[in-house]
Write a structure and sequence with these properties.
5 domains, six-stranded mixed beta sheet, eight-stranded antiparallel beta sheet, Alpha-Beta Plaits, Elongation Factor Tu (Ef-tu), domain 3, 602 residues, Rossmann fold, alpha+beta, globular
Length: 602
Amino acid sequence: MSIQTERIRNFCIIAHIDHGKSTLADRFLEKAHLVTDRNFREQMLDSMDIERERGITIKSQAVTIPYKAHDGEEYSLNLVDTPGHVDFSYEVSRAISSCEGALLLVDASQGVEAQTLANMYMAIEYDLEIIPVINKIDLPSADIDMVRHQIDHDLGLDSSAAVLISAKTGQGIDELLEMIIQHIPSPQGKNEAPLKASIYDSHYDAYRGVIVHIRIFEGMIREADTIRLFSTDAAYKVEEVGLFKIGLERTRTLRTGEVGYFIAGIKRISDIRVGDTVTEQGNPCAEALPGFKEVKPVVFSSIYPVNTDDYPELQAALDKLKLNDASLIYEKDSSMALGFGFRCGFLGLLHLEVVQERLEREFNLSIVLTSPSVRYRITMNKGDLIFLDNPVEYPDPTHILKTEEPYIQATIITPATYLGSIITLCLDKRGVQKEMIYLDEKRVEIIYEMPLAEVLFDFYDKLKSVSRGYASFDYDLIDYRPTDLVKLDILLNANVVDALSQLVFRENATSRARSVCKKLKNEIPRHQFKIPIQGTIGNTVIARETISALRKDVTAKCYGGDISRKRKLLEKQREGKKRMKMVGNVELPQAAFLAILKTDET
């Protein structure tokens, strides 16, 4: 039975990482009896193993929850659970665009943090009704008065309207559901109007093709309808339509305001674009929906298959992953050392790690990643402007007029106790302090401008380490600024390994080169000849390590006698080693590439 539009509520849960979004979603599912006690598990909406292991949400997930309110009416609540990590803010923006309201979750012991603010501003941008929710009130360290003050003071919301809950124990969930019914508006639009729906996500099924996730803004979609996609103008006949319960539940029709899916036998993955508008072929809507803001990758790395024969499988895997992760950008690439692969753009280092793990687990591929880089802006002597993220394409330095690197504005909220350590860390990363605001007597918000390249590798880990996990971090790209950029080449046995080349700030080049050479020395197995590992800028060697040769004691059979006999044997061995070094190939194991990606221990 279809629910009237007035009794539909579309809402998402937004919060800082680890404030209890997935746990709250679990309680909603239990209340609606969508899952039996026998089948229940923690993080029900987190479908990937990697999400469970890390305890984070990576993909926003939708589910339709039937709810009988205190007024006796049946309501349909469409919930979208969103990620909290800064790398996945694009997922949050897509979820928000499909909703009319948002539950802004704040941890009762940790209070308002950087991503809480960032996500709230995003919800305000989309004109959502925001309900503040104070979670984890069952904790001994919960300070509800402090959090109410922060909601008033930091967020500018009415703290008296905040709902007190414990997503873990289920306390306050009934009151929260009633608040959703009363305060979040029902969707606007008419069932009789031409179909206008937005694609906010999709995933690939090996048997049925692309399963498209949509939000209907106007009109209806039924099985056997012929639909048209605005961006590609492709037309398809709809085979199945339904809602998201814990699995896919076929309903044959979706009406205005509903969030669900359709299957239309779409095998060509490139036809489906997140943010595209779906309409009816025979009775199309006048114009497309605005879609989502264009995603801009900030970290670039090349992915290569360990076995070169797996290149077609890697291409197919990236195509399917792109359906489920619209923020992934890639193009074909090649390397002398590693063969054919793909140059990929990511939203951050965590996003890169997640894509790597998903390729290895879901598609059973063995892959190698090159060292991550940001996109630099280079002005040539002739006035040409080029954007460069691949060290292999770095032009001759004599032809370069100036180089610029991307800068970010970092917002850090921390307890005042750790302020000194965090300022030292930011200064080490070439940060310039712009603002310091005492939010209250215990918490400080500091704003720094710093190069994105400095934040890439280990900034987040070090921030958590020096603040004992209490500091929170969010950033926005601001502009490009001049930098002294150099290309660091790594030579193995006097041959440049292009896959290990990096673009680095000149003052950091020596320490980076020494670190890479040391890691390679530990990872590359010894050969029959001596292997020099060198870090160079142009023709200048700035770091060197040497892997000693495996040596046979050729003088062992000489008992006494003239020293010239031993010298002759050693000379012969030396000549053999020299010839071997000239023709010998040094195999780079996968572990060597992975070691370079790992954070330096400090």
